Amino acid sequence: MIEEISERQEEILSLLKRHGGKISSAELTEHFDVSVQTIRKDLHILSELALVKRIHGGICLPVQSNNLSFSNRQIIHLEEKKEIARKLVEYLPEGCSIFLGIGTTPEQIARHLIHHPGLTVITNNLNAAIALCENPNIETHMVGGRIRATDQDVVGEDATHYFRKFQVNFGICGVGGISNSGDLLDFSPEESHLSQAILENCEQRLLVADHHKFERSAPVKSSHLKCIDIFFTDQISNELNQLCQQLGVKVELSNDEPLRAL
Questions:
Q1: Which of 97, 117, 128, 142 reaches 20 to 30 Å from 52, CA-CA?
Q2: Inside any domain, residue 2
Q3: Full-model pTM
């Protein structure tokens, strides 16, 4: 099992995106000044994780109508997700109530919330709920519904209805992708319905996504950036930052000074 992709493999993904979704093995070998065999090994690992598609002479971005497996998502861009989680948890006040949605970044948020006092958390994220059990002073509500073994979460009409029973201080959700026009994208209608329930039943709407989600394709529109109050991310392109400014969305980068909720 691959525990975490390397820094070079992370950079290969960034180069692939900057080159318009296609790059040759020769270009990668020259860029990193390593052997062809080393690059082939990297590309094999990325291909096995479904992060790239092997083509003659190089790689391209895969067309994604389905999300990556949960185990793959847990190790991809892990450090970025941890830093985003740390930043968001610094923002949350003591004694607040939150929705915590599906995905691996919300899971990391739950792990950082363990020592946060007086919380009430409603979630459909199995790993988040288990992590929160380490602090008996956190009141955790787990939704009911159909368990998706591949995603380690709970979805369906019952889960969506359960979220709608609450009105919380902060709704925290991840996203499958963000289009260049600001659409928030997910991989299934069930995910979309849950995201909508989170965003519609909270006082402040918080989006968490690492920068690799920008212009990542997913087939279902869940919402739009204009519906978000604060966007927590690790870094942001000029294009996306300008869009957030136009829409009045506050951007919080994980390496900035802490922001505190009033």
A1: 128
A2: no
A3: 0.72
